[in-house]
Amino acid sequence: MTAELHPIQPPVKITVVDGHLAEVTLAGDISVPLLRDLEACLADARLREVERWVLDMHAVTRIELACAYALLRAVTEHSGTATVHGARRTVLRTLRDAGLDKAAVIGE
């Protein structure tokens, strides 16, 4: 019996609002197996065309440091501004450890 393999998809949803704002909603456990797919999502052409990103992290239960660094790289490569909303205390700690608080506004 062979097992059917499903590609790992990062729990990321991108919504562009009025052509100026992108809402990037992340959810669940953002871990290393999702890293390449996360980076691919963050390279979405729609994110390059907007002035501001809002990263909604209300539903993120955990994020590994490598994935936080991927967020940091994406935010620093973006020419606009980024704001993080709704991250849990443990997620915030990892985002700060990666240095994301130096490149984005982190709201409580």
TrEMBL record:
Coiled-coil intervals in this record?
A: none
Membrane-spanning parts: none
**Domain (MlaB-like STAS): residue spans on this chain:** 24-101
Q: Which InterPro entries match?
A: MlaB-like_STAS, STAS_dom_sf
Q: What is this protein called?
A: STAS domain-containing protein
